[in-house]
Amino acid sequence: MSERSVLKVLNGEALTPPPIWLMRQAGRYLPEYRETRKAAGSFLDLCYNPELATEVTLQPIRRFDLDAAILFSDILVIPDALNRNVTFTEGKGPAMHPIDPAGISALKPDNILPHLAPVFETVTKLRRELPSKTTLLGFCGAPWTVATYMIAGHGTPDQAPARLFGYQHPEAMEKLLSFLAEVSADYLVAQLDAGADAVQIFDSWAGVLGEKEFEDYAVKPVARIIASVRARRPNAKIIAFAKGAGILLKDYRQKTKADAIGLDWSVPLSFARDLQKDGPVQGNLDPMRMVAGGKALEDGIDAILDCLGAGPLIFNLGHGITPQADPENVARLVSRVRSYGVAK
Q1: Which of 104, 278, 319, 333 is the most exposed place for a label (fewest CB within 10 A)?
Q2: 298 within 8 A of 292, measured Cβ to Cβ
Q3: What is the pTM of this model?
Q4: Does residue 149 carry a catalytic annotation?
Q5: 2: confidence class by pLDDT, cuts 50, 70, 90
Q6: Is residue 281's pLDDT more than 60?
Q7: What local confidence, expressed as pLDDT, does residue 159 receive?
């Protein structure tokens, strides 16, 4: 484990070159993923099939020798375990039964971990099959982001249904976020116990929140997850990614107690460097540069390395890799990052 470079950075070390992995690195841009996805049936069937979920998690590691593998699953397995009738439709995304205040009061955590047993089996298989140098990351969705889907019943451009719900039903919103924080902490502890080296909390919709709501919906629930995980697993390493949070990231690390903070591509590098003074950062290449390739890709990589490469950095994209990305551009990205600081 001592060789695992991502863990070293999460412990505060600055490595040259920095380790690299990519959000959604197992996905539709890879032809081998598309083949496995067809064999699996539905998207959720793939998430709950330990053999196939292990296979798709390993595919980008085999191709690109990335420094971390992230468990193949989805943030919405928690609502699925809560019997919210989660479905995924090609071209439309996820849908489920929308929840109301009465439904929130009726939520029970009893069946969540048993329902997610195949996920933990996948984690154990992955740790066994991954190279010893490769960090294995587990993850969950942050309570606010998961709540947005549970309230609206589907994804929306600005999460207006969930924001409105919070104003109209503040007590129910607080109850939902608290419940999701508790069960998410249990879920992450189970992943760590199954073999994950570290975990990431994805708050993909943090950027739609105002200042007070960010504190109440994004900061406090994530802080609660991290405190709960650390109370049981004091050495747990945790990355928190609040996409679109901008200036509100200023004290996000201090308030949540995350070991590292993920940065989306809109975070200015000068601000990222200030954030890095307090600890490791992860990010933040625009995924569109992975589609563009060429000079656009090289310039984006170099700007991040020039600004953040001397401090504790995990190189990543500013959000998930898109299906349009060329796998050859991933190979170029990895090669360029790995050549950073290497004497010519």
Answers
A1: 278
A2: no
A3: 0.97
A4: yes
A5: low
A6: yes
A7: 97
* Secondary structure class of 23 (helix, strand, coil): coil
Please name the amino acid found at residue 259.
Answer: D
Per-residue pLDDT tens over the stretch 200-218: 999 999 999 999 999 999 9
Instruction: Return the closest-CA partner of residue 52 out of 34, 32, 31, 37.
Output: 37
* Sequence-ordered alpha helix ranges (H) in the chain: 5-10, 31-40, 43-47, 50-64, 77-81, 101-105, 112-115, 117-129, 143-152, 160-168, 170-194, 211-213, 220-232, 252-256, 269-276, 287-292, 294-308, 327-338
DSSP symbols for 189-212: HHHHHHT-SEEEEEETTGGG--HH
Query: Does residue 74 have an active-site annotation?
Result: yes
Cα dist from 282 to 112, 269, 276, whole Å: 30, 12, 9
Is 332 annotated as catalytic?
no
Catalytic residue among 149, 187, 217, 252: 149
289 catalytic residue (yes or no): no
> What's the mean pLDDT in 308-336?
98
Pairing status of strand 93-95 against strand 87-89:
antiparallel
Active site residue: 4, 67, 74, 186, which one?
Answer: 74
Any catalytic annotation for residue 28? yes
